[in-house]
Batch of 3 targets.
Target 1
Amino acid sequence: MTISQTAGNVCTISGLNTNRQTTANSADSKVISLPGTECVIKSQAYLSSFTSYRVGGAAQWYAAPRNLVALSASIEYAKEHNLPVTILGAGSNLLVSDQGIPGLVIATRHFRSKHFDLQTGQLTVAAGESIPNLAWEAAELGWEGLEWAVGIPGTVGGAVVMNAGAHSSCIAEMLVSAEILTPNGTLETITPADLGYKYRTSLLQGGDRIVTQATFQLRPGADPAKVKAITKQHKQHRLSTQPYNFPSCGSVFRNPKPYAAGWLIEQAGLKGYQIGGAQVAQLHANFIVNRGGAKASDIFYLINHIQREVQERWAIWLEPEVKMIGEFQPGY
Ligand SMILES: Cc1cc2nc3c(=O)[nH]c(=O)nc-3n(C[C@H](O)[C@H](O)[C@H](O)COP(=O)(O)OP(=O)(O)OC[C@H]3O[C@@H](n4cnc5c(N)ncnc54)[C@H](O)[C@@H]3O)c2cc1C
């Protein structure tokens, strides 16, 4: 297989060897090796282990490539077998249906590499690197700019796609460029101007382009003790105002400006309201927590209930920030 760079920051990936070996793992699960890579594709992989809500059924097929060659081989496999592809980062903003997801789920969480460039103050990181870990590492080095992100338990890829943000900062403000694998196998370098960034959205959402790497502009040369202290302050603030002790996806709804979704939900009397194992958190009403044994459908019905109650009380329809994937049946 070759990956070739062409004009305009575009690379082409071609020549994948497609001889594959299938082994039966157990009665109802198969493992397929992708030749020339260390990557395997597994059938019936339960996604509750890969999402922060700890709910969700199985992916029909699941791959967790560690590099571009394995990622491309996984995509080739999906194309050949006509399988829809779903991309997963750390699964910290996802509600996966109890019925699971048809097609191939590709997790980019094992894409790892990072480079802090002292000359430019730029941090270049692979899609699977953890945002909170990067915030701590930058702080240790005395690099400012990522302190705000310490409480966001996602990957670089998910943060670029979601325009993750907190404490009045967001990814759009610091992204220099991102490397994207397109459906036709080309690698492109794009900038924030190409991404149509708005509050917690980007043009990458719902699309078929995969973030493989990103470069962020930071500010080296500060006192590490100072940067660590600010990072710690942000973390402590989050721990005291948001329920990190139960599985969740963070804020469930977008804030319908000028209002905060959490305030509208709280004023509608919904704090503590529970359906099955899913509960509106006591500490922060824009969080739905899995109190133990929740099903994705409990969370989905609770989302619907909150939307209806807030609509009735405030005439505002709350739009979910959480991405729901797979099938959900309305009608609790
Ligand atoms: C306790 C808690 C607190 C949170 N606090 C915040 C907060 O303060 N601010 C905030 O913005 N968010 C917050 N979140 C939500 C979440 O962490 C962010 O949205 C995060 O950016 C999602 O990253 P992820 O890697 O988990 O992406 P996932 O949840 O796995 O995916 C999110 C979306 O990105 C896509 N995606 C992921 N990786 C890639 C890739 N490599 N290429 C293409 N598409 C990809 C997925 O298909 C999906 O559409 C919180 C979540 C939790 C659980």
Target 2
Amino acid sequence: MVAPDESRGIQKFRIFSSSIVIKQVAPRGLPYPDAMGIGGVRLKEEYSDMNLKDKVAIITGASSGVGAAVARNLHEAGVKLVLTARRADRLEKLSSELKETVFIAGEITEADLPQRLLDKALKTFGRCDIVLNNAGTIEVGSIPEINIDKVCQMVRVNVEAAYRVAYVAVKYFLSQNHGHLINTSSVLGTKIRPMAGAYAGTKFALEALSEALRVELARTNVKISCIQPGLILTELHRDYKVHPKDSLNIPKPLQPEDIARCVRFILEQPDHVRIPQIMILPKDQEI
Ligand SMILES: NC(=O)c1ccc[n+]([C@@H]2O[C@H](COP(=O)([O-])OP(=O)(O)OC[C@H]3O[C@@H](n4cnc5c(N)ncnc54)[C@H](OP(=O)(O)O)[C@@H]3O)[C@@H](O)[C@H]2O)c1
């Protein structure tokens, strides 16, 4: 006779084994058979992830720091660019330096901006292959000092807008059966330190979405990656009373160009390679 607990165990085993059977019946067509096309996961003959020349990338947060450095780096590789940020003068200057570069100046939390960026890429260049989901802001502080309104604005930029950009990108990439979404997360998307909990929370949220999308898109030709940098010398900390390089004693932080090389490395992998996450830290960051 089977004891009640054992009987439950058998049932669990039956459910488990029947789900295996379902997977064996239809292992590859789920959940995006159209995106995979006839013949499974193969890309069109002429397409290769490794050759960046003439690919088209959208970069958010492109007016300074990481976004601007990635724009310059990808431009050298022959990528055509659609840039966005709020400071039109910065975007104007950068796009006049780089050939085949256009921009839309705007507030990334405007709900229709991600779709307008995609439309701009398609109308101007006829394609979109890469999205760097990079616009971000930081708000940290001790319990008595933290500005909750600024924290909520950070959540809108780092989470809500980043999610909109991500979904617009992956929907389009699925429809064409290729594309690479790279999210600028942070080392604080994997670790937490006092007074930076809300910022870390926004990056954990980006990591969670990225991981779910990556698994959902496995077996398609849509790639999802997250970059997790430590301290980079950019304009992000311009309002800090004491810069983190001093408060954290990191005399030589990362440069935006270090992150740009990472992005280029992730993008230039062969079609069968996935890099879900890459952490990059300055030598002296103890975290
Ligand atoms: N610096 C670091 O130590 C560090 C470390 C880990 C991760 N990160 C991440 O790296 C990403 C890029 O930051 P960064 O370090 O390069 O700093 P940054 O120089 O301040 O660049 C931030 C970019 O985001 C744009 N942006 C901010 N708020 C926006 C809004 N509401 N609407 C549209 N664009 C907005 C800014 O442009 P406008 O001001 O012109 O709009 C700027 O182009 C962020 O996601 C950040 O969280 C940075």
Target 3
Amino acid sequence: MTDMAIPEAQLVGAVEHDISTDKFPVKGWDHLRFYVGNAKQAAHYYSTAFGMTLVAYRGPEQGYREHAEYVLRSGAATFVFAGGVTADSEATKHYARHGDGVIEVALEVPDVDKNYAYALEQGATGITEPHDLTDENGTVRIAAIATYGETRNVLIDRSKYTGPFLPGFITRKPIVDRSAAIESGQEPKRFFQAIDHVVGNVELGKMLDWVNFYQKVMGFTNIVEFVEDAIATEYSALMSKVVANGTRKVKLPINEPAEGKKKSQIDEYLEFYDGPGVQHMALATNDILASVDAMRANGVEFLEAPDTYYDDPELRARIGTVRVPIEELRKRSILVDRDEDGYMLQIFTKPQQDRPTVFYELIERHGSLSFGKGNFKALFEALEIEQNKRGNL
Ligand SMILES: [Fe+2]
């Protein structure tokens, strides 16, 4: 399969929708910005292990004294890794409290002022008022509102800008040259093509508040609902609801811990992240087998599916026919789920930093708009094995 074979909208389960009718129109994801302990090394890791391409940079060399920031892309997905250059940089303080984590979930919007005004009218807290950023490549209009924890939703209109990322950033060449691996077929051109969803973990009793927040402030709708017992294991449980914009390009599941016999995985996150924040990001791929093989070969660790998963007759019946033999999925610990619209393949990485907090999912959708509800039990059991190893269960 090539990148061109499947349009981005189909990869992420987007639907036809005219955003001009929305009170809070959203074109799609703009970027995810991370505060990390060492942005230079993060840029290298995401280049080699995640197959991303460094495209832009800003730091002290550009007269920006606070952070060194590396902008990496994979298809439509843009990640920005910012590290503090001084002891009192914002990123340094954020890192000290939370470890590596997501500070900005940025959305591209057609009219920043309109969205910002609407959000504040509906009760959102403004962090940065709409303002212009300009350099020789044009102007970006930008603003930010607060969401769960210290996380921000940034609003960006980049329709009048042609530079590599934002004003002030310079173009940078890729850190590693993957061309030989791509030409020989050893690695896919991209390990993922787009961001599918971004999941937030919030405190017990707070999930509905944040679901209501996105419904009220952004006009998002609740698209999937999990009841507590649907996703409980013997030990721990969580509650989860998903809100999405009209096109369903931007999907935001929100989790909260539920009472279980032992500490929920969400409680572990909240303890080690020291509050609510982004738990995982799902990355859409058109060939999850090739992506997983390349990432494993480059050192990314994935959760192992329980041995029994692929032999469960109920699951086999539910899965039906998928594009590859189940043995190929078993070899790689890739999970399958199905709903009335189709199926999807998914797999989860282990945490990607020292703290047991932020991780990734790879997802290959074939019509299904689900989030893997059918896999939650198997997934939680795998997570709890890891949690137990850390002494946190
Ligand atoms: Fe997910």
